[in-house]
Amino acid sequence: MLPMRKKDLARVGFFPFLLTFFLVSGCTPKTQMQVTGVEPKPTPTAQAEDPSKFAGVVPLGSSITAVEPELKALMKKYSFLEAGMYFLDLENGNFLDIEGAKAFPAASTIKLPLLIAFFQDVDAGKIKLDEKLKTTKDLITDGAGFLQYQPVGKEYTALDTANLMIAISDNTATNMIIDRLGGLAAVNERFRSWGLKDTVANNLLSDLKGTNTTSSKDLARVLALLVNDKIVSPESKEKALEILRNCRTRSLLPSGLGKGAKISHKTGDIGFIIGDAGVITMPSGKRYLGAIFVKRKYNDPRGRDFIRQVSQIVYKYEEQQHKVASTR
Fold it and tell me: What is the structure's pLDDT at 47?
């Protein structure tokens, strides 16, 4: 995502408007400082998991073989792309796993698990949604977002900062959240406690070289724990999903969904890698998880086309499955 230009910000009075628009209802220490206080509530990942359940919470069904011919033909057409994807039906546990465990540069999708860690600390009483976070020289960065253009030392509420991290993928806001969570080491320890195998935050944003990593399966895991109330409270879950619904980029998974479908998601794009992960809710109420990464030539638009078509194939399959189930 390209950064907003200063003249654009001045013309539309962007910051006050954005904070009002994206504010979810219901409401700085240095980067390596350790957070103190009550530890987050343990998740099921702390114990041996039932292998018959995805993330220990969703009973696994069968592999979705019905879409394999169409997907294989699509992947052959786009053989110059490198892809990994994981989709999971939350009702019957049926799944599509194509290189789902393959690690890719996370780009801005790393902001999805960061948001969940943020709300975990809200639940633990470590973070107040209305507390103020400050921009500092070591946290301000380029790339996506407009906080980089604001005066050093300016304050924003923690909730507004989290909103900006997701809605417009603000990199400076992301660094402020990482800082508030206790720094990179603390964040990675949190990710490991959730059972994430490929998700590592090695550097602050903007990380244009792609040193931070994750996988489709890891992001699907985080989402499965989230929607099943295993990682944050029900109240924080709803706030997190609402923030993720405000993600402004709509050119990846959302572009393949049917009319009336909703998605709570986070995208990522650093030119040679694009990715998206989210919870899709169909007009019928049926829900499924989707996560996908594509490695491509720098800014090659065919990467977006591929993701759109994969999303479309899976959505049509899920729609048909709902129709069949409704007639039984």
Answer: 58
Residues 6+ apart with CB under 8 A from 161: 133, 173, 176, 177
Q: In the beta sheet, which residues pair with residue 214?
A: 104
DSSP 123-151: HTTS--TT-EEE--TTT--SSS-SGGGSP
Least confident of 3-12, 40-49, 121-130: 3-12
Q: Which of 107, 141, 136, 115 is nearest to 249 (CA)?
A: 107
Q: What is the pTM of this model?
A: 0.86
pLDDT at 46 (0 to 100): 46
Q: Are 278 and 266 in contact (CB under 8 A)?
A: yes
Q: Which domains does the chain have, with CATH numbers?
A: 60-326 (3.40.710.10)
pLDDT for position 322: 72
Residues 6+ apart with CB under 8 A from 286: 89, 91, 318, 322
Q: Give CA–CA dist 281/283, Å, rounded.
A: 7
Contact (Cβ atoms closer than 8 angstroms) between residue 116 and residue 240: yes
